[in-house]
Structure formats: C-alpha cells, structure tokens
Amino acid sequence: MSSSTSLLLKLAEEISRNTSVIVEHLNRNDLPQPSFDADGPSHPIPEANEELSAARHALIEASKALHTLAVGPSETTRLFYFKDIYFVGAMQVLCHFNVPQQVPVHGEISMGELSTKTGLDKGLLARFLRMAAVNYYFTEPRPEFIAHTAWSKTLATDPKMRACVWFRHSEMMPSVAKLVEAVETYTSSPEAAEPRNTAFRLAFGDTFFDYKEKHQDHMVKFGQFVDAFASGIEADTAESFARAYTWETLPAGSLVVDVGGGIGHISTAVAQKHPLLRFQVQDFGDLAEESSLLRQSAGVSDRVQFCPHNFFDPQPETSREAAVYFLRNIMHNWPDMDCRRILKPIVEVMSPDSRLVVCDIVLPEPNTTPKTQEAQVRALDIVMLSMFNAKERSYEDWQDLFTSVDSRLRITAVIGRPKLGTESLIEARLMQ
Questions:
Q1: Locate the O-methyltransferase C-terminal domain: which residues (predicted)?
Q2: Which CATH code fits 238-430?
Q3: Residue 253, phi-psi category: left (phi > 0), alpha (psi -120 to 50), beta (remainder)
Q4: In the prediction, which pLDDT does 383 show?
Q5: Residue 223 has pLDDT above 90, yes or no
C-alpha cells in the first residue's frame, strides 16, 4: 500500500470517527442535525462542549486535507482560486441587489418574479444565483425557481451577515489587489513603517480611518461586520474574558483601566461578575452617551466610569497605578512604532504591582495548530498588513515589543485555548 493511499484512508477514518462523535451527541441530546435545508441550524455543532469542539475541529481539518489530496496540486492551483474569486463576485452582485431578502424564507420564487422584485436582468440573475448555488448558497429545486438554503437564509435574515459579504468584496478585495504595489512602493521607503503606507490607501486614496470618517455609511457597515465577526461560535465575548482571566485575585476596590474600550462592553461584563472591582473606560468623548446607557442598563454605573481619552496621550491622574491596564484589539491595528507610543504612557504610570493585560491574537508557531485554525489568524495578519500596515504577533513579537518600551516589562502569563477562542490574554508586569 502506497503512502498516499494510506494517508487517504487515515483521513477517511478520522472523518468517520469524528462524525460519529458529533452525530451521537446530537442524537443523544435531541439536537437538530446539520442540514443544507433552509431550516437547518446556523450553529449545528455546540462549541461549549469541549469534546464536541475537538471533534468538530478534527473533522474540519481532516475533511480539508482529504479534499485537497483528492483534487491534487495542479487542479487546486489551476481552478480553485479561480472559482473562489468569481463566487465572491457573484455574492457581491446578489447582495447589492438585495436578492437574499427577496427570496421567501420558506418556499420558492420564480426567477422571473425575482428579477422584477430586484431590478436585475433575469439572465444575469440566473447566472449569479447558479454560481452561488454550487457553493450551497440558494438552491434551484426545479428549473427557474429559487429557494433558500440555511446558508443563504442567514443573508436574508441578518444584516450583519450581509455586511460580511459587503466588507470583503468592497474593501478587502480592492486592498488585496494592491498588495504587490504596496510592497514594491513602501518596503524600501524610509517611511516603510508608517501606518498610512498601506494597500488600502493605494486602493482608496485615504487611510482606513480617514476614509471611514468621510464615508459614514461605510462605517456603519464596518461596525456590522465587526459585530458579525465577533458573534461566531469561536468568537471571544466580553463574558468569556470575564471568566477566563483571574480577576478574582485582585484586591477589593482595585481599578481596571480599559484603554480604548469603546462604550465599555468588556468592563461592564467583568464588573457584573466581579462586584468588588472598579473600572475606567477610556475612549473618544463622542462615545460617552452610549456608554452611559450601557452602564446604566447593566446596573454598574457606580463602579464603571467613562473617561474621554486618546490612548496616544499621557494617562490621566485618575488612572495612575491602576491594578490592570486592559487593551483589547488595539495593538494589532498599529505598527510597532505606534504600539510603543500607546504603551509608553501606560508603563509610565504602572506601579510594581500593576498588570498590563493585552487581549489580542498570539500567532502560533508553524505546524503547531491545525491548518484550518492557523489559516484564520494568518489571514487576519494579512488583513492588518493591507489595511493598517500593522500585524498580528507571535509570543516572541509581543515580548520584543514590550521590552522595547521598557526592559522590565515581561510576559508573565498567556491565556488562550480552551478558555478562549482565537484571541489570547497576554499578561505582562514590570519585573524588578
């Protein structure tokens, strides 16, 4: 038996074994089975169960590997990226013309009627729908009639899912198309590390944040995209951070400073779980009113305060020597030179007992995690490059960044899987 045949059989057996684990759990707990039907569950395999989560990831990994082997290197290179690009293009058109919302959630609609409802030429509509259907979005149950699958139904019922399609085709793809030009233009430049020198700026003529400031409709959709990305079954929620970190080890009355904390979702969640702690949420002043509403509705206004603050500025006196300085998804938006500008004002007010807790991705060492999981964070790394001239960081990158700000700032703990999903909590302290 050749090694390639053995690998095919090994992968097939792994797929069968992990499928059995999942199906048995679903049957035992009277849960719905995964299905392409419109009524199929959107999250069919519960991630909360550790054994089931492991089986799901193993199934995805083995299925991807088996599929890749079965297709082979030449066909993968020749056809697959080609098909993926035009599938994305088809989805772009369908979402732009509001096609998902015009297809009934239950039942079917003729292509002629759908053409009338959307204003999209019937012939073009059919071509785009059939491209989507071979990727399990929509189905043609009989000639010239269209119905939803569970996949396309998410686009019909959830504007955040439609925002995912919009952001990827409207902003990610044009930026990716400029990556070669960006690398050629900026790599040898004395200003190579400047956050404005991005593929995004080459595509749109502005930095990401300046462009959003001028196009508020884009900012709204981007916010929906971020919300959708944060609602996945592996997403890290405010509640998961409240559970994962050792907040209970902080003395009663300790102050936690949530740097760049938006309206305070995380501080609010942690405050609800740990009633002896105080919080200061720092962000731009125009978020104060929304933050106040959140804190009042959660009943934590007496312990969670909002402080207008730009994280490049010196820390206010009210936040000196806090127990924890917490930053979530801040650093990966900035190159090292600007991360140092963010960290320096914090380090200057830290006491020997203070902790810096950064919530961000820690890139795995190659070949230490399943490829399907690693692929997600590698993709995010390229997103950060193309949008912000920034990056995701490995453990060594984080340590190097910290010590470049202060040689005493050392990583003391990293909390990741299984307590969290894609992100990790990186704790650092000033070591004497």
A1: 196-404
A2: 3.40.50.150
A3: left
A4: 94
A5: no
CATH architecture of 74-157: Orthogonal Bundle (1.10)
Which of 187-191, 280-284, 368-372 is predicted least confidently? 187-191
Three-state SS string over the chain comes to CCHHHHHHHHHHHHHHHHHHHHHHHHHHCCCCCCCCECCCCCCCCCCCCHHHHHHHHHHHHHHHHHHHHHHCHHHHHHHHHHHHHHHHHHHHHHHHCCHHHHCCCCCEEEHHHHHHHHCCCHHHHHHHHHHHHCCCCCEEEECCEEECEHHHHHHHHCHHHHHHHHHHHHHHHHHHCCHHHHHHHHCCCCCCCCCCCCHHHHHHCCCHHHHHHHCHHHHHHHHHHHHHHCCCCCCCCHHHHHHHCCHHHCCCCCEEEEECCCCCHHHHHHHHHCCCCEEEEEECHHHHHHHHHHHHHHCCCCCEEEEECCCCCCCCHHHCCCCEEEEECCHHHCCHHHHHHHHHHHHHHCCCCCEEEEEECEECCCCCCCHHHHHHHHHHHHHHHHHHCCCCEEHHHHHHHHHHHCCCEEEEEEECCCCCCCCEEEEEEECC
Give the pTM. Answer: 0.89
Phi, psi of 305 (to 5 degrees): -110, 150
pLDDT digits (tens, 9 = 90+) for 145-178: 999 999 999 999 999 999 999 998 899 999 999 9
- Residue 1 above 50 pLDDT? no
